[in-house]
TrEMBL record:
Residues 1-24 form the signal peptide. This is Prenyltransferase/squalene oxidase repeat-containing protein. Gene3D superfamilies: 1.50.10.20. It comes from Streptomyces olindensis. Residues 52-163 form the Prenyltransferase alpha-alpha toroid domain. Residues 348-368 are annotated as: Disordered. The chain crosses the membrane at residues 376-396.
Length: 402
């Protein structure tokens, strides 16, 4: 629901000349300890706030109360002006001009903290920063001043909606985020029939992109990462003059793309063999379900249940969160996801949820309640699963064509 972040990150990294690996980042060395409050055990340089936000949002979605220290870690990542960087190893050091603030990380943090509640001051400052860096076309790029892209604009729309803002009223130069998305929607007919592009190329041409299309459908619907099945409105592909029509066109494109490869999407990185794209497939499920296209969404979810376990284990908390969002969107129990308990697997990548912490504390005092659903036996089982991080979150989900 990259959400929607890899192409934006890769573009930003290319601009500043700091090339990042497209696969899993290296595990920390014995002398390199990451915060105990952080979900995942891989280098958080590029995705710390993002994966933390997704993990906390997914836990809240399934009724799990995250560890207080994990929420506090996320809050302390915010800079004084309201924005969030991808990761700040020392949050006691003030942000400065060298701190690369990130619209995607900021928007993900807003969605997580708004869902958890009790952080209105933090989310208000973050939304204020997002508004301050809105582009003249109404959209957002990955970083302040960057060219608007579908993924970033859509995840910001999700943040605005999460705090009760009306995205169509958040304007810059008379343009709203929806205006920006409509400019990135391909017309009907020809290649990319009804899809969204990530960004125009240097000549202004739009090229269909499945990940951007999943993001664009959610954005055009005014939705965030967590959705429930919507009501489908049958509509043939037509010129995307309204956001609703653009969403319908994009959903039709995703349905067609998923159907070509046994109900899943394929990656298409230059120079690499095409591979199943689990993350983008999960995002497509959420987008289709949000618009009420539940038939294809459910077929693709079944494919994920059968095939995504290894991918999720390799990529950690954000990957588990994406699958939780996909399950939730289709009304599927994430605790019985093809026989796997996604909630237990997600919880195992970070600190114990608050209820489990309280139960363990009671056990230490000899106050164990054998009937408690959060008894020590349950969490011990969770802890036996190794904490799995996400390298560069974008391994399965964020394969873009820049």
């Amino acid at each position: 629901m990259n959400v929607r972040r890899s192409a934006a990150v890769l573009a930003a990294v290319a601009v500043i000349g700091a090339a990042a690996p497209a696969t899993a980042a290296p595990s920390p060395s014995p002398s390199q300890a990451f915060p105990s409050a952080l979900y995942g055990d891989k280098d958080p340089k590029y995705d710390g706030v993002w994966r933390q936000s997704l993990a906390l949002l997914a836990q809240d979605t399934v009724g799990v109360k995250p560890a207080a220290k994990s929420v506090e870690w996320l809050v302390r990542q915010q800079c004084a002006d309201g924005g969030f960087a991808a990761y700040r190893p020392d949050p006691t050091t003030a942000c400065d001009a060298r701190t690369m603030l990130d619209t995607n990380a900021t928007s993900a943090a807003v969605q997580a903290l708004a869902a958890l509640g009790g952080h209105d001051d933090v989310t208000a400052k973050a939304v204020g920063w997002l508004k301050s860096v809105q582009n003249g076309d109404g959209g957002w790029g990955y970083s302040a001043g960057g060219a608007s892209d579908t993924n970033s604009t859509s995840v910001v729309i999700g943040a605005l909606t999460a705090v009760g803002e009306k995205p169509d009223q958040v304007e810059k130069g008379g343009k709203s985020p929806y205006d920006a998305l409509l400019k990135l929607a391909l017309p009907c007919g020809g290649d990319g029939d009804g899809a969204f592009a990530f960004q125009p190329d240097k000549k202004g041409k739009l090229t269909a992109n499945a990940d951007a299309t999943a993001a664009g459908v959610l954005g055009a619907l005014g939705k965030g990462m967590v959705v429930k099945p919507g009501e489908k409105s049958d509509a043939a592909c037509a010129q995307p003059r309204t956001r609703e029509q653009a969403a319908a066109n994009g959903a039709a494109y995703l349905t067609s793309a998923l159907g070509k490869d046994d109900d899943h999407l394929m990656s298409a990185l230059a120079g690499a063999e095409p591979q199943p794209d689990y993350g983008n497939t999960a995002d497509a499920v959420v987008a289709l379900a949000a618009r009420g296209d539940t038939g294809q969404a459910e077929k693709s979810l079944r494919w994920l249940e059968e095939n995504a376990a290894t991918w999720a284990a390799q990529n950690g908390p954000a990957a588990y969160a994406q699958l939780v969002f996909a399950a939730h969107a289709t009304g599927t129990d994430p605790r019985d996801f093809g026989g796997a308990d996604l909630v237990k697997q997600l919880n195992a990548t970070g600190p114990a949820p608050q209820a489990a912490e309280r139960t363990n504390a009671a056990d230490d005092k000899g106050e164990k309640d054998s009937d408690s659903v959060f008894g020590g036996w349950w969490y011990v089982g969770v802890c036996l699963v190794a904490g799995i991080g996400i390298g560069f979150l974008f391994t399965g989900r964020r394969k873009q064509q820049l």
